[in-house]
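Hi R.,

Here's the chain you asked about this morning:
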Amino acid sequence: MEDISSTTLRKRRAQLLRQMPALDTLLRGSLIERYKRCGKPGCKCADGPGHGPKYYLSVSFPVADRKWTTCLRPITPTLPNAW
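And here is the predicted structure, written out as tokens:
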């Protein structure tokens, strides 16, 4: 591993912090990719990975450890910038 000075590391840290969004605009959660089987015996999903992928956003709220899950639009497998 190369030897990097502490001054260089501090400058890099400050640069990264400036690029981050404000903490009150971030969501605490997970983006989940799922494939589901429909249960029909003749369907291709019976022998394959399933229908999908479908993307779900599971968000955890700090109050009472509540969780909220919603299905994202199939065309967008990335997290939205703001909700």
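One quick note: Strands lie at 29-36, 51-60, 67-71.

Cheers,
M.
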